[in-house]
Amino acid sequence: MSRFWKIALIVVAVIVVGAVGFRLLHKPAAEEGAQGQHRGQHRGQGQQQGQAQGQGQGAQGDNTPVPVTVEPVVKQDVPVYLTALGTVQALNTVTVNPQVSGQMLTINFKEGQEVKKGDLLAQIDPRPFQAAYDQATAKQQQDEAQLATAQSTLTRNNALVAKGYVAQLDMDTYRNNVTNLIATVAADKAAVRAAKVNLDYTRIISPIDGVAGIRNVDPGNVVVTTTAVVTLTQIHPIYVMFSLPEQNLEMVRKEAGGNDPLEVLALDRADQHTIADDGQLNVIDNQIDTTTGTFKLRSIFKNASGDLWPGQFVNVRLKVRTVNGGLVIPAQAVQRGPDGDYVYLVQQDQTVKMQAVKVTGEVGDSHVMIGSGLALNDLVVTEGQFRLKPGSKVKALKPGEVPTAPSASDVDKAKKRAQQSGGGRRGG
User: Fold this and answer.
1) Domain 91-223: assigned CATH number
2) pTM of structure
3) Which has more pLDDT, 376 or 60?
């Protein structure tokens, strides 16, 4: 073999050995990459399975019924009230002043006492007025005696004038004297009556039935006609004044025009209980206050037990009409949202939805009347709304009913679900 071919064979052998060596050196790295990629795919699938399992368990937890209290929509006759802040006013308020001046001898009432018309309240010293009365009476008797004498003289001389024994001029004098004395006696009688009135004024009498306030004088004080002895307020019956917005005027006038007077209730300032429920609308004022846009009304209460007191502030409810067959639900079922009032309405599949409603009035202290949004016998959630959202599944309970406690098997299932959920997360 020639030298040339020997060199060619050596070169080819070197190339073959190099290629084999390169192949052997790079094969383990490629296989290791493929195996790593394969393991990564399995890990990703495990994570996806864990997430799917967690989601499934979460969905299963979300579908657990939420125990809530529900009540049906009922139909009943609902009275419609207009409410306002009212002020109690006495039917009559009288400041008792003496009609004559003098020393106060006695006070015959107790402060805060109820007095009747004609009761003696106080006594002023009557002696000066008794003396004036006696003097006027004596003067009347004196002038009556003179009148009797003058009339007798006129009668005797009237028979003698025809015989010429008495001049006609004297007869005129006799007649004028009688006439003058008649007028004097009439004046005396008036003076006697005036003295008797002043004497009676020493007895200060109650002009009305009412409650005596705090007295301003004591026995022994000298009083004059401007001295206020006491103020009396009549509280049986009594007024309650209140105002309503002018947009209610037409409705109130229309309803007040019927045969029966409108009913009025007086409640305490906190609207917790009714103070008096026997009130009737008495007067609607004849003008609207332009500064406030309201009109005044006056109601009258019998107030037999004296629960209403002059100057007291009360909440007034004016019953204007009655809605027959109104839809009523508990007030606690109504929630406030950005778009207005709503309730959670229980549907046929025992899930809830937010149902917009319109509240048209209050029914007592715990219920409201619904104008739109609900129908008779619809079930609304009254307790447990804070755990709900649209589409939540619920377990409807009656008012006062308590949900049953979970059984042992339910507890075990819940623990297993929790363990599975936790294991899936650790595998991820």
Assistant:
1) 2.40.50.100
2) 0.63
3) 376
